[in-house]
Amino acid sequence: xxxxxxxxxxxxxxxxxxxxxxxxxxxxxxxxxxxxxxxxxxxxxxxxxxxxxxxxxxxxxxxxxxxxxxxxxxxxxxxxxxxxxxxxxxxxxxxxxxxxxxxxxxxxxxxxxxxxxxxxxxxxxxxxxxxxxxxxxxxxxxxxxxxxxxxxxxxxxxxxxxxxxxxxxxxxxxxxxxxxxxxxxxxxxxxxxxxxxxxxxxxxxxxxxxxxxxxxxxxxxxxxxxxxxxxxxxxxxxxxxxxxxxxxxxxxxxxxxxxxxxxxxxxxxxxxxxxxxxxxxxxxxxxxxxxxxxxxxxxxxxxxxxxxxxxxxx
Length: 314
Prior knowledge:
Elements: H1 2-23, H2 29-53, H3 57-60, H4 63-86, H5 91-102, H6 106-117, H7 122-148, H8 156-168, H9 171-185, H10 191-201, H11 204-215, H12 225-252, H13 260-270, H14 278-283, H15 288-313
């Protein structure tokens, strides 16, 4: 248990610090958003670029990991959609529920945990996760939100194209693409430039955790509690279970092979709470209350679920 706490305690202590400094008024909520932009647009792209560019293509490209993680995520989207439909949830809340159930926060929370649990693989794990999430899971969920929005008359393909174009402009994906190009080319980058990139990358962990904690202050906690509980439970329990089942099936059939450490990291990645901008996306639909509750439940509850998974998998 002490080994598990050595991983989880620093993570959640940093988030608690972020909550405290905003609650006490030492930092304003707007300042947390500014720090979050720094992490998303500078620190994490630098981290991903550094992790990918410094490794060979064989180390970076893990088809077994990508296949299992993507299929497990798609299964989560499908089953969550059916569960929310079965409950009679309206289309907008259903789309919100599916998104919260299947889009983990591997940038702000997942990477710090991987850095402590799998330090040699943490950068590659982050790159693989973001590749699947930003090219497969998030576009599908955003499309569901678009299709559920009232008054939308634009055809399906233009909507999908707009979503993919917006994602392609994300600095994290640009950093990933540039890192892949350097890795494939075998180009040796100048040492001063690499130190500059590593300097930016090293700031990502602590700042991201403080931002997550600070962002929990002042959330509009007036939404549907039963819906929020279902979203958070689906995120923390269903997605890692489906990823684990997919791994057992594909590995058992001999269709893919996967390093044991990556196997464990993949299940842990699926068990992260939902991504940081979840409440922002929900606000556009007027559903920030339920989304805020779900984010709060999932972020706090993940201390228990992630600790249990770390105990089982490591």
